[in-house]
């Protein structure tokens, strides 16, 4: 950074805050989507978390943090921000995933409500089988929520295999009350649903 010619050795007060507009996020309030003027100070951990969320939300490569353009932007916009490495970002994303999973799992267990699920399976161009399980539920504010619970590789598209994968996922999330399970019209899904019904009723 360029130093002041009159006070070249003046120390920077790290507690200094700046005024900026911050969007409100109170659900259901009249001010939703508006902005409030707040005093914000620099926080390395908060910036690092925001950087991690940016990578996830925008589906960016982990190497994005090592691109010269991003480094240039940070050097101008926020010189004090220590840019994390590719390995650090990968580790932070896994931590973020487990933290978010823990919060959602605790909510589902605490609310003890029935959830509706949708599942889909497909085979990649590398001939690898995958399955995704998504939950749908209404939160305490009567808003519809949708969360991807699991995205896993499976051995094949047989009904028993799919049923066991769904069962393992529901157990992992502590879900024992299922309202509906929606699948496509593949013949193997009939056996998968039959497997889930037996496990939930037992």
From TrEMBL:
Database matches in InterPro entries: RNaseH-like_sf (IPR012337), ZnF_BED_domain_contain (IPR052035)
Lineage: superkingdom: Eukaryota
SUPFAM superfamilies in UniProt: Hermes dimerisation domain, Ribonuclease H-like
Designated name of the protein: hAT-like transposase RNase-H fold domain-containing protein
Organism: Daucus carota subsp. sativus (Carrot)
